[in-house]
Amino acid sequence: MSPIAMTVLLVVTLTAFAYSARRRWRLMLVARRPENRTDRIGERLAGVVKYVFGQSRMPRYPLAGWAHIIVFFGFCVLLLNSIMLWTRGYVSHGNPAYNLWIFGLHQPLGLIYAFLRDIFTVLVIVGVLVFFYYRLVARLSRLTLNFEGVLILLIIFTMMIADLVYEGVEINKHHAGQFQAAMPFGSLAARLVGDSTFLWHLGFWTHSALVLLFLNLLPYGKHFHVLTVIPNIFTRSLTPRGRLAPIQDIEGRLEREETLGVKAVRDLSWKDVLDFYTCTECGRCSDHCPATNTGKLLSPKHLTIALRDYLYHNEKLLVAADERRTRRPGATRNGNAPDHDAAPGSNGGNGDEKLLLVPETIKPEVLWACTTCSACEEECPVFITYIDKIVSMRQNLAMEQGTFPEQLQTMFQGLENAGNPYSYPNDQRAEWAAGLDVPLMADNPDVEYLYWVGCAASFDDRSRKIAKALAQLLKTAGVRFAILGPEETCNGDPARRAGNEFLFQMLARQNVETLNRYNVKKIVTACPHCFNTLKHEYPDFGGHFEVVHHSELLARLLREGRLRPQRPVPLKVAFHDACYLGRHNGVYDPPREVLRAIPGVELVEPVRTRDRGMCCGAGGAQMWKEEEAGRERVNHARTKQLLEVLPASANGTALGSACPFCKTMLTDGLADLNHEQVRQFDIAEVLWMSVSIES
Asked: Which has the minimum average pLDDT: 58-72, 567-581, 637-651?
């Protein structure tokens, strides 16, 4: 099989791959924000087993998922076949090393491997044909339909055919053409190819060369994920999905006029770049993105591709700028060197200003269209994160460049001056509780739960109904609770998601100080945004509390018999999952448990529900700004989906939710779409209808 030819092939191709891999590694190091992803090793390894070798996220798209699973395991099995073929380049038939000593057909393991290799060769062909269909016939819009994808499929398909040809000739030459039970498809191929030495060599060299060609193509396209998926999933974030990492020493960074958020590639982390490398361009993220589905400029897939392509196209400039920076006095390998030659607020001198990401590469409209609903991250099979990158770029726009949607300025001013985005006087926070005898923490600090009311339920008339219903349910169940009243201020979620991290941290520290002063241990809230922030983000500022959503507490009170629904409520309810309750925190069953416990209520599920439920459109500070231009409003699209499962007559029907912002968006959606006869309720409101003895 010509050892000289095999040596030349291996040396040339592996040297070329090493050169490409080194370039990608060096480019990844341009991203300078430190990132530690070496903690909790056992959990990380378990994730690799589950998500890489278990392929557990792939079947969310059944046919494509199972086709990918087949091809993945086919490659795992056939990798050994490639090694065996390269070994055969140095030995002749009959040499013990020809089949590697343990895998000869005379060995039990050899028979098992030969059978697996034969079966998976054909299964991979089937999987590739499925992908050919999606790309060339169905032409799925979620896919990137370019030549690279077709070329890779052609390479894989040709390799598998070459294997069958080589196997068939091998059977004819060395097994007298007899049927081999361990190689059923190879035996079938033997009937077609004869014992042609030319075909034997063609099959051998085609596979041997193409697998090395495939290896060298990986660093230059979407199939780079073949190599990066294991490290990317191993180094995935293990913090709660709803948590955003704080900017450390933000006051000091402001004083030193250092970059805030992400302005250029160097402000990213190596893990961000690894995400870009690992994108498979499958489009699952954009397929479920509410912004993409309503015609906005944002597409999570194309955002990732744009950033990756930007890295590739500006590789020399980025590496050169990074090398200049590391040569400056005071530079460190993992830190930011002083920008002695840079103007305040710039991202370095010597041409670095050409390397800004927004607006040259990413349009601001793309960033401001994100609702931070996490549908993209729920779908991504390789654990790419999007929200952290989008919010980090928003941070730079909001805090350093001062460019953000005009309406957000009103929200920022309200939070800073009044402690709430509505700009109402904060001493009105407890007005919703008039006549309900709801205690204040200042008067009753020794309670089991602090009821964190939130801004919407404090000031918005529609959401105040949620607060009233919940308070009455808690009192009926004998739960000892109190509210902060005027001492409560916004938790800061809208400021943080809009990029104003400084304002968020100011509010967070103020609230944590108040909560710790009262020695609060348990908090209940009806707002998923408050729930998520208090539970996952306040610990970064010294606030450690047991936080429950009102759906969780109400479900427990029902199970314990402390709440007894009695009056029938004849409603058919289409339930909508709040993103910050469901995808961000995994709370799906409690609100349904509450609704099912109410006599007369019939719960129906929309087609897109639970972890695939569509966002109402309020998250990510969208509640406080005009929606980005598109063909449809997000809340209209979601309202239509919910209405699809309700009777056309709409008598005795309602949309159910467990979030005040969802309540607002869905109520507006019903009004805008002329379906005001369909009512909209929070689960607490419906439960109080059944529990209350009032007429």
From this structure: 637-651
Whether the predicted pLDDT of 405 surpasses 60: yes
Average pLDDT over residues 580-594: 98
What pLDDT band is residue 354 in, cutting at 50, 70 and 90?
low
Alpha helices per DSSP H over 29-107: 41-47, 62-88
Other residues' Cβ atoms within 10 Å of the Cβ of residue 529: 30
String of DSSP letters for 514-579: HHHHTT--EEEES-HHHHHIIIIIGGGGT---EEEEHHHHHHHHHHTTSS---S---EEEEE---T
What DSSP state is assigned to residue 325? H
* Token pair in block for residue 327: 């040569």
- 674 Rama class: left (phi>0) / alpha (psi -120 to 50) / beta: left
Mean pLDDT of 275-285: 97
Structure tokens at 138: 């169905």
Q: Are the C-beta atoms of residues 582 and 662 closer than 8 Å to each other?
A: no
Query: Do you know the residue count of the chain?
Result: 695
State the CB neighbour count (10 A cutoff) for residue 332.
10
CA–CA dist 658, 638 (Å, integer): 15
Strand partners, 264: 356
Distance CA 361, CA 211 (A): 35
Whether the pLDDT of residue 228 is over 80: the answer is: yes
pLDDT at 343: 35
* DSSP-assigned beta bridge partners for residue 321: none
**Tally of CB atoms within 10 A around 486:** 16
| Cα-based angle 221, 223, 225 (whole degrees, multiple of 5) | 115
Give the pLDDT confidence of 182-215 residue by residue, as tens digits: 899 999 999 999 889 999 999 999 999 999 999 9
Q: How far is CA 422 from the centre of its chain?
A: 31
| CB-based burial label for 577 (10 Å; 0-12, 13-18, 19+) | buried
User: Which run of H or E residues covers position 662?
Assistant: helix 660-672
Q: Count the alpha carbons within 13 Å of 681 in the hemisphere toward its beta carbon.
A: 26
Measure the CA–CA gap between 273 and 624, rounded to whole angstroms: 32
Predicted model pTM: 0.93
Please say if the pLDDT value at position 283 is more than 90.
yes
8 Å CB contact between 305 and 275: no
What are 109-118's contacts with CB under 8 Å, separation 24+?
111/182, 112/182, 113/77, 113/80, 114/180, 114/182, 114/183, 115/181, 115/182, 115/183, 116/77, 117/77, 117/78, 117/80, 117/81, 117/163, 117/183, 118/167, 118/182, 118/183, 118/184, 118/185, 118/186
Give dist(CA 341, CA 470) in Å, integer. Answer: 59
pLDDT for 694: 61
At residue 651 the predicted structure's pLDDT band, cuts being 50, 70 and 90, is: confident
Q: Which of 618, 454, 438, 579 is nearest to 523 (CA)?
A: 454
Give the SS3 label for residue 452.
strand
Placement of tokens 């967070």 in the chain: 508
Give the model's confidence band at 174: pLDDT under 50 very low, under 70 low, under 90 confident, else very high.
confident
In the predicted structure, residue 236 carries a pLDDT above the cut 60: yes
| CA–CA–CA angle 38, 620, 413 (5° rounding) | 115
Question: CA dihedral defined by 287, 668, 652, 643, rounded to 10 degrees?
Answer: -20
